[in-house]
Amino acid sequence: MTFRGSEPPAWVPERWEDLGDAPSVRADGVPMYRRRPRGRTDEPDLPPGRPGRVVTVLREIAVVLVWGLFIAFVAKHLLVRGFVIPSDAMEPTLMTGDRVFVNVLDSTLRSADRGDVIVFEDTQGWLPPADEPASVGDWVVDGLAFLGVTVDDSDNHVVKRVIGVGGDRVTCCDARGRIVVNDVALNETGVYLSDSEAPSDIAFDVIVPENHYFVLGDRRSSSGDSRFYLPEEKAFVSKDDVVGTAFVVTLPVSRMGPLGDQHAVFDEVPDRTDTSGGGWW
């Protein structure tokens, strides 16, 4: 290092680190760069009371989880809900153990149509009581199902097919053993009834009350449905109890797919204008 003048300055730094902060621009206009002080790391100094990086990450994860649960809850109660089929009463349309999605919004915007496969809450005691009291594990599973995180396999829901709507007269059976709705015989065999399944082995003649449905399982020989609770009013499912309309099988993979449109069976059935009464004809 050289110096101008006769004598060097009284103090000469041996290392750059001994210098203080240098100006960003020299006197002659040439820019200079500030040095990084010794011992400085890439991590900025956190002011007192500010949470560390770990706390910040955990907080962000918690926010994501809360939003995820909220979205799942809204989707379940307003859009789509999952269910597990517990029995063979809807075979061959739905098999035991099938996972299905139910359109919840559909039941909010409109009434069910003849031919719809609906899931409804059992508020009238169709199902037998549970054999064992609910455990803590059951409560956890039910809670997750309520939030929409898992499919609902609770034992207080029923899945059946709508055969008659409010005002319909539904009878069994004509001379060929077919169910009749508003004087029109239904050709169900080969559509959602297997060839070996009779439409019904129980005779009935009813008028469906307004805002209610007459429902049957697709496997009539093993389905506990509206027929078994006549002539009581509990034979008819209230519109208010309907959760939604099943529209797709999601599991198992071998059966994955839409249920298909099976409403053609009811295409010729007219609507009835006389909706008074309800019960036996």
UniProtKB/TrEMBL annotation:
Annotated Peptidase S26 domain residues: 59-249
Positions of region (Disordered): 21-51
Catalytic activity field: Cleavage of hydrophobic, N-terminal signal or leader sequences from secreted and periplasmic proteins
Subcellular location: Cell membrane; Membrane
Cited SUPFAM superfamilies: LexA/Signal peptidase (SSF51306)
CC annotations in GO: plasma membrane
Main subcellular localisation: membrane
EC numbers on record: 3.4.21.89
CDD domains to which the protein is assigned, alphabetical: S26_SPase_I
Membrane topology: Single-pass type II membrane protein
GO biological process, one term: signal peptide processing
Coiled-coil annotated residue ranges, if any: none
GO MF annotations in UniProt: serine-type endopeptidase activity; signal peptidase activity
Positions of transmembrane segments: 61-80
The entry's keywords: Hydrolase, Membrane, Protease, Transmembrane, Transmembrane helix
Top-level taxon of the source organism: Bacteria
Family: Belongs to the peptidase S26 family.
Name under which the protein is recorded: Signal peptidase I
UniProt source species: Kocuria soli
